[in-house]
Amino acid sequence: MKRTVQVLLRALWAGVFVVATQLGAPTPGQAQQVPDRLNYQGMLRKGDGTPEPAGYKDIEFRIYNTPTAGTLQWARTHRVSLDANGLFNVVLMEGGSPITQGSPLYNDLTSVFTAADGQDRYIELTVAGSTPIQPRQRFVTAAYAFLAADVTQAKENFTVMGSLTVQNSARVQSLTVDTTATLNEATVQSLTVGSSATLNKITPASTLTVDGDMEIGLGNTDYHHLRLGGGNSSGYLYGSYPALPDGIHLGYNYYKDASGVDHVRNLGGPTSRLSLGYGEIKLATGGINTPPTNHMILDQYGRVGIGTTSPAQLLQVGSASVENSQGMIRLGSRSGTESYMRTWDIGVPQTGSDLSGQGYSFVIDDIQLGTTPEFMIKYGSGNVGIGTTSPAAKLDVNGDVKIKSQAPIAIHRYPLPDKTVYVDIPNYYDPPNAYSINEWSAAVIGFTCNGDFSTSSIGQLLNIAMQKNTATGKWRVQFDVRHHSTLNNIVVDVMYIRKELTTDDR
Questions:
Q1: Of residues 404, 400, 384, the one with CA closest to residue 392
Q2: Which residues in the chain show pLDDT less than 70?
Q3: Which residues are CB-neighbours of 290 under 8 A, at least 6 positions away?
Q4: pTM surpassing 0.90?
Q5: Residue 189 backbone class (left: φ over 0; alpha: ψ -120 to 50; beta: rest)
Q6: What are the φ and ψ backbone dihedral angles of 112, each rounded to 5 degrees?
Q7: DSSP H/E element including 278
Q8: What would the pLDDT profile of 385-415 be if each residue is shown by its tens digit?
Q9: What letter would DSSP give residue 260?
Q10: Beta-strand runs (E) in 200-270
């Protein structure tokens, strides 16, 4: 039998607005829970226009997204009671049984009307044993529900032109405030504030944007922290004066509260802190479940201190006034194509109470060459040690010394030609590989020969000296035999000394 349904009251979507006469006016500080129910009234008539007789009828309620055909959004069967005029009233989702035929998209009405296309919804009724009543009826807005337009958009974008106060809790995806917002407790996906906001307990789910100034704490002693991140550890932006110097501090896995109490988020992890104060920046780190301590500072004069908070030079590593301090720097390099690499330590090592070795002296150490430094300036004496950690003189070298790739002192023995007759003019001997007169000083340190050295009236029997050969720029040996007796097998010993080691021009 053909039936029609006459709707006497528009279906009211309970989530659009709240009427005080229906639910009672909410008291300040209360948040009303939106019920997942829909009130629906209608009048069921026969094909000839007369009312259906009083009694019970099973009616299938289906909601679609289009006037005809379309996608089934929700479906449920409710048993309704008809009066003598065919009038019935039903609260959808209160009792009844779901209809699975046609695979409805949603099991609840909230999802039906808050989906992206929720503004297009049509209801279709089918009385048991008959065909669907046509046409479908569209859900429309009740008169004063237009005032709730901004609220219905709050899931995507919520704009407040005046003041907004959230007393208890709220979950908002995107919130834009042009003037003032007071949020006591809210979970916010995106919050944009154009003027001012008082945030007492906010849990940002994604992004917090402030188009203006933002303050955390309002007084000289009103210190609070801002937590960044989550999981095992978190980052914190905080202040804590006088427990920490006046300034702002950024910590990971750690913050110090307004009372100076340390807080470590993950007890199984190390800690760190970056502090920005009056004319200084400090870096601090700590071990597992240990508050961080300062290790590095940049002061107002651009001086960097590592292991000291009072650098006296542009870079100071370590401090004589800090216990267990060590002023050491490690330098290393490695080639990009070959396995060539080297590591050097430079500085002032700390060795406790052991003063016998390298401790507290300036050292340069090729750590891959051995266990002791290759160069040292000994503390207290200023003695320089090369290859030794106990220099006994201003320069103490344990090994060979060269100047310009040569030993600084050289001794050579030269055999001279035999002279058997008296010669009254100088004789010269130019040794092979002779030494430069510009780089070396030279002196005869001894000789040997065979012959008759009996007293002679002639005077000197043999004169040997070093002579500069200006033509060649080399040293040569000058020797004069002043005796007519035979002198042979003359051998002379000559010592050469680098001019860097002597002021003698010989």
A1: 384
A2: 1-33, 147-181, 183-210, 217-221, 230-231, 418-425, 452-461, 481-487, 506
A3: 264, 270, 271
A4: no
A5: alpha
A6: -60, -45
A7: none
A8: 999 999 999 999 998 888 888 889 999 999 9
A9: -
A10: 202-210, 225-228, 235-238, 247-252, 254-256, 262-264
Q: Position 19: which residue type?
A: V
**CA–CA distance, 40 with 125 (Å, rounded to integer):** 11
The 10 Å CB-count burial string (b at 16+, else e) for 157-185 is ebebeeebebeeebebebbbbeebbebbe
In a 3-state reduction of DSSP, which class is residue 248? strand
CB 386 within 8 A of CB 378: no
Amino acid at 325: S
The whole-angstrom separation of Cα 74 and Cα 37 is 13
Give yes or no for a contact between 348 and 326, defined as CB atoms under 8 angstroms apart. Answer: yes
Nearest-10 Cα torsion for 180, 186, 190, 195: 10
CA distance 240 to 256: 6
Nearest-CA neighbor of 447 among 485, 488, 392? 488
Residue 150 host element (H or E): helix 149-152
pLDDT tens digits, residue range 7-40?
443 343 333 332 222 333 444 444 456 788 999 9
